[in-house]
Amino acid sequence: MKVFSKGTIRLSSVLITIGVLALSGFGGPANARSNDSPIPPTVRAEQFTVVNATLTDDMRLTLDRYTIPAGNVHFLVTNSGGATHELVVLKTDLAADKLVANATVAGKVEEQGHMGETGDIAGGRFNGLGLQLGAGSYVIICNEIGHYMAGMRVAFTVTAPVVNVSLDDKMSITLDQTTVYAGPVTFAVSNRGAVIHELVVLATNMAPDELPADPEQIGKVSEDFNIGETGDIPASRFSGLQLILAPGVYMVICNEIGHFAGGMHTTLIVLPAPTGDE
Fold first, then answer.
1. Predicted confidence (pLDDT) at residue 112 exceeds the cutoff of 60
2. Cα 97 to Cα 142: distance, rounded to the nearest angstrom
3. Which residues, 6+ apart, have CB-to-CB distance to 107 below 8 Å?
4. Whether pLDDT at 12 is above 50
5. Model confidence pLDDT, tens digit, residues 44-74
6. Of residues 209 and 31, more confidently modeled
7. Structural domains of the chain sorted by starting position, each given as residue range(s) with its CATH number in brackets
8. For the CA atoms of the chain, what is the radius of gyration?
9. Which of 27, 38, 45 is nearest to 240 (CA)?
């Protein structure tokens, strides 16, 4: 896996407002792998992922999915019991049943890595919780007195984001997400044209017209900021690339001869991964 280490990437050219809310990879050289399969249908990223949660008086906390992709998530939480419950999301590498007991409140656990919670939900009531979650391991609990110890806890996983990329002969390069969270990012790249294309990720926030030409190859631009690429992708084929990206601004291009000048470049913004509020 290639890790970006070529200096700090500035965010000065992009205004980003961040709230208190941010797969398996492809192996081989430059983290790229092509195959001979026809292009799979492009899967568009949802604006958010919905997770339905149910809390019950037999001390069960169940979800309709225990793994989601990084990004926005809406927890829809139903208390189907008669007692008060809650849903608390913690980012932690601890096992679900190994959280630390609260030192001051008997019957509760510490909420280290607290990302958000519903607050108390009365019996027979419903609540919701919207969060932004980066890739990693989480534990979701009810932390009413005694409820965690009685079994109201589940492990939850957020996987690295996947950016679907389309390349075509109109000299366009399209990302289905232009903003992702820092960390592992997988690019799923489809050449939908009839000529060879490629995907190159440059760690630079230069404007396209500021990028210097390649002094050795006419029709290409310099790849001094190259942190990963797919290599050539034949017509109507698919390739992939996984990188670990630091927060900043990146340029994503095709650098086949004449393609960058023809318009095959776009911007990817990488935000710091969300952290807990406590």
1. yes
2. 12
3. 145, 146, 149
4. no
5. 334 689 999 999 999 999 999 999 999 899 9
6. 209
7. 2-44+160-271 (2.60.40.420), 49-159 (2.60.40.420)
8. 22
9. 27
Q: Which residue has the tokens 């919701």?
A: 128
Distance CA 85, CA 163 (A): 37
Q: How far apart are CA 58 and CA 189, in angstroms?
A: 47
CB–CB of 160/80 below 8 Å?
no
Is residue 35 within 8 A of residue 238, CB to CB? The reply is yes
Q: What are the respective helix, strand and coil percentages of the chain, to the nearest 5?
A: 0, 40, 55
Helix (H, G, I), strand (E, B) or coil at 278: coil
How many CB atoms are located within 10 Å of the residue 7 CB?
11
Give the Cα separation of 81 and 121 in Å (integer): 10
Give dist(CA 235, CA 263) in Å, integer. 18
Q: Is 34 helix (H, G, I), strand (E, B) or coil?
A: strand
Q: Are 75 and 167 in contact (CB under 8 A)?
A: no
Beta-carbon count within 10 A of 90 CB: 26
Which residues does residue 3 pair with via DSSP β-bridges, in sequence order?
244
- Token duo for residue 259: 């393609």
Looking from the CA of 276 toward its CB, the CA atoms found within 13 Å total 15
User: Do 59 and 170 touch, CB atoms closer than 8 A?
Assistant: no
Please state, rounded to an integer, the average pLDDT across all residues of the chain.
Answer: 86
Report the alpha-carbon distance of residue 116 to residue 248 in Å, rounded. Answer: 26
Structure tokens at 151: 């079994």
What is the per-residue pLDDT for 2? 38
Q: Compute the Cα dihedral for 17, 21, 24, 29 and give only its sign.
A: positive
Residue 244 has pLDDT above 80, yes or no: yes
Residue with tokens 């340029």: 251
Looking at residue 278, its pLDDT comes to: 58
